[in-house]
Amino acid sequence: MGASLEDEGSFLGAIPRAVSEQTKATIIIAKAAQPEPVSLLELERAGEEERIFEEELEEVSDIVDKWFAENTFHSDEFSDLAELIALKEKQNLSISLGLPALNEEATIGQIIKIIKRKLYDEYPLLDEIVVIDGGSSDRTPQIAKELGVPVHTHYDILSSMGGYPGKGEGLWKSLFILEGDIIVWIDTDIRNIKPDFVVGLVGPLLKYPRIKYVKGFFRRPLRIGQRLLKAGGGRVTELTARPLINTFFPSLSGLVQPLSGQCGLPVIGQVDLMELIHRNRELSDLSEMSFAIVQVVMDWLEGRGKLHLFQEISKNMKLVQQDRQNLYLKPKRIEDIKRPPMITVPAYREKFKNKIFTKKEIFR
Length: 364
Prior knowledge:
By secondary structure, the protein is α/β, with parallel strands linked by helices.
């Protein structure tokens, strides 16, 4: 017998349920994800709901346009370091720079030298610089220590909560180590490092109290062999993140490079940091990253009742591999670990109990 997809909250439907209660025979029930026939009145209601939905989308579009105009900055707007330091002191704030790293011996030394000399020694904008290492097998930790920067391996931070590989884990764990009221992160594989990359992120937070979170965006040239293409970086952002955001989170569609944690739109700012050159990943690595991002988005949507999945999301990916003679499929399990907001971790609240409200304002 057939059964409707839903019937007053019952999984079976009224008729199959009644039959099953009156027979001992085996019953085979076929269910399809098709809507029940609707009346003209219901169609009219659906049309009205669609009209309201379209009006809401137009309203969201106007909000995003306004936000983009008011909360998008350029790093050049914050070039007066003396002014920024004065604003920091006036607001009684401290600033920490976290450097997530994994096998970056080729670039981390230059990054530390340039940032430390300009923003720590000459202009004391930064109060703390710390490397959060993901278990490097090269000289990354030694180079940082030789330059006077402390190094913490993120597996050793909050060890009672376990440890996982990946940059996201390092950023999350770094919140427990970094002491500043404002936390800044930059990558450690940047080849054209400039103090502007830090200043541009800090500037809006100091100059505009309404801003609580700042995301940088930049042009990322793509190196192919000896050629450096002016555009081509940010492939996961453009091919996975932005389409998903425009589909399910249109209010965040104004974020140029949105791969990061978010908070409410009015308190988000974004800064143009111009051009950034760093190590480009292989396309196969980006495919795995995209697969993980899709999982996270689907899980988030279902958890908030915005999407209903009829089967569990697959965590296994078939990676296309090639040797000298054949193409073959290599299965790999790819699964992101969701960490709770750091401010909810008891050890964090105990450590920062004297300034927890300041940090809550910044990271909410």
